[in-house]
Amino acid sequence: MSEGAEKASGDGGNTIEYITSNFSLHQFNAAINDRKIIYQVLKMSDSVLVFINDKRNMQLSSMFVSLLNRYDNLPIGTRLFGDFMEEDVSKSMALRMSKKLNKTVYISCNVGEDRTLLPLVEKRIYEEVKDKPEVF
Asked: What are phi and psi of 127, to 5 degrees?
């Protein structure tokens, strides 16, 4: 039986095994350029999902995935959903984060295309990675 598992007998002699989840959720905030940015990180077994939103405009408009590439040291990435004509801000962020964390990264960055804001948004993520690596 795995760590954190419990067994319970069901009707008819069947056994149900309850196990602890491999998912964990972490949330943190940042005040950047007079905007409150909310970060939500869902850590999974071999990957991480990062939602980045402006508190004034919570949305899920697009999502990218970045995967490690066994044939090259650069990860590969693609858009899972969203407007295929919009700039690939989340994609480049996902590629960099995947390389840094050495795992698959899903990212949804919904703070707009502000060129002064985006580097600060990404910097805050890396500060959190440095301070709390166990949540990534």
From this structure: -65, -40
Q: How many CB atoms sit inside 10 A of residue 113's CB?
A: 9
Q: What is the pLDDT of residues 111-126, one digit of tens each?
A: 877 788 889 999 999 9
Can you say whether the dihedral through the CA atoms of 79, 83, 85, 89 is positive or negative? Answer: negative
Q: How many CB atoms lie within 10 A of CB 108?
A: 21
* Cα–Cα distance measured from residue 120 to residue 43, given in angstroms and rounded to the nearest whole number: 22
- The CB-side HSE value for 16 (13 A sphere, CA atoms) comes to 6
**Reported pTM:** 0.81
**Mapped to the 3 state alphabet, what secondary structure does 59-118 carry?**
CCCCEEEEECCCCCCCCEEEEEECCCCCCCHHHHHHHHHHHHHCCEEEEEEECCCCCCCH
Separation between Cα atoms, residue 101 and residue 58, nearest integer Å: 26
Q: Are 82 and 6 in contact (CB under 8 A)?
A: no
Q: Are 80 and 64 in contact (CB under 8 A)?
A: yes
36 contacts 120 by C-beta, under 8 angstroms: no
